[in-house]
Amino acid sequence: MEPFKNNLSPDLVKCLASHLSRHLDRFDRVSFEADILSELESLELKRRAALVAEVTDRYLPGDLGERFAVLEAVLHPETEIAFDRASDDRGMCGWGILPLTMVVSRCGLADFDSSLALLKEMTKRMTAEFDVRPFLAKDQERALGIMSSWVADENTHVRRLVSEGTRPRLPWGMRLKRLVEDPSPVLPLLEALRDDPEEYVRRSVANHLNDIAKDHPDLVAGLAASWLKGADRNRQKLVRHACRSLIKQGHPATLEAFGLNPPEIRLEGPVIGTEKVRYGEQFDFRVALTSTGKAVQELVLDYLVHFKKANGTLAPKVFKWTKLSLVPGETVSLTRNHAIRPITTRTYYGGTQAVSLRINGKDFGYSEFELVMPEN
């Protein structure tokens, strides 16, 4: 897979230079390209974007209105463009928008109306989710006042920007501390977007709520219960995705919102197929569940692998498994395989590890196995 950083390539820099040369008098294209290309190859994605933004900022006119006119003039005429759409001789789009939105947030905080209007145009060609955030941080009320009208915009990317740009904990983006502490100002905007015709927008709403759940789980659980009333299939999917972390954690109010009551079961297992598991291989375990309840039960099963840490303690990691419905007295047997393979986010340590189950948020069973690491 091609590294993300290569989306901001020398060819993209030359494309931007070509467009700037059409709209800037006495533009020194050779120097512009050299100022960027001399450093570009050694940098990762975010730093590449910042470099292109810094150099572009230096070559634009000092007057804000004039520089914004140039930035708007270099945009691709087509909108609703996918992230991977390459900039071309018609204009900048896709990954080429990322440094241009940075230019706006670098220089435009003194003029919210013009800056956010330009970011609205830029987001139609990729996204401006990272660069509306400095405006929200500086004057949240003013920025939200402008963005709130975008929930009814005809452009999918603009509507998504309302949700994605205001996420309190957006990955790669600056944290919006006021919205982390109090997300209530954006809740009416999320509600306005929850039944958007585009899944791209609804998915953003779900991810936004998942952000909020990290700091306000009871708030999101309450929203889930409210939004699920009379919900169609699309909204049900949104709410379930929004609550994915809370469901994994077994948050009681969230489980109740989904009708997942404390399980009434008898469990056998988990029974692990082998007591010793070699690094790079997989192990299997099996369980048998018998319903002891008097009514049909809807169950969500996850399993936890308790991995050994460097200090010798065990830390559980939750993995999604399955959903099932049990009638009174019914027994279901299940088997699962889990591979112990190299991943960048975990370091394995040999010794005792364990497996357990989480059913409707409640933990059941606990069985140990030995992880055998290769000898050096």
Automatic annotation (TrEMBL):
Q: Per its record, how is this protein called by name? A: DNA alkylation repair protein
Q: Which organism is it from?
A: Roseibium aggregatum
